[in-house]
Amino acid sequence: MKKIEAIIKPFKLDDVKDKLNELGIRGMTVSEVRGYGNQRGRSEFFRGAEYVVDFVPKIRIEVVVEQEMVEEVIEAILNTASSGKIGDGKIFVLPVDDVVRIRTKERGRAGL
After folding, report:
1. What pLDDT score was predicted for residue 40?
2. Rounded distance between C-alpha atoms, residue 109 and residue 99, angstroms
3. How far is CA 94 from the centre of its chain?
4. Which residues contact 61 (CB under 8 A, 6 or more apart)?
5. Cα–Cα dist 108/106, whole Å
6. What is the chain's percent helix, strand, coil content, to nearest 5?
7. What is the pLDDT of residues 94-107, one digit of tens each?
């Protein structure tokens, strides 16, 4: 199993969620996060004074899938979240040793 974490622009969330639902992804965790990479934040003006917003608002989507679905999920996120502009985000793929569903105590594939 693999955990896929995608950091995307907030306005892309609904499209990515719909695409993942089409692939049969039954559950995901979504968090509002803030950060920066190459985008480096932006300058804004408030009452005539300029200030820098260092951390840009983003959305983090987390899903755990079987190894066979990893590339399909990555492609779905890439095709849906990409605008071709700086700040589109990143996708991280991490190994998952086990999953346990708390309610039923099911483990592994059944725990997903």
Report:
1. 65
2. 8
3. 13
4. 4, 5, 6, 8, 13, 16, 17, 20, 28, 29, 30, 77
5. 7
6. 30, 40, 35
7. 999 999 999 999 99
DSSP-derived letter for residue 36 is -
Pair 9, 77: CB distance under 8 Å: no
Copy the structure tokens of residue 40.
């480096």
Classified as helix, coil or strand, 101 is: coil
Residue with tokens 């309610």, as numbered in its chain = 103
Side chain identity at residue 76, one-letter code: A
Q: Which residues contact 60 (CB under 8 A, 6 or more apart)?
A: 5, 6, 7, 30, 31, 32, 33
**Please, how many CA atoms are within 13 Å of residue 9, restricted to the half-sphere of its CB?**
14
Kindly report whether the global pTM for this prediction surpasses the value 0.70: yes
Closest by Cα among 56, 57, 13 to 32: 57
Going edge to edge, which strands form the sheet with 29-35?
A: 29-35, 56-65, 2-8, 89-95
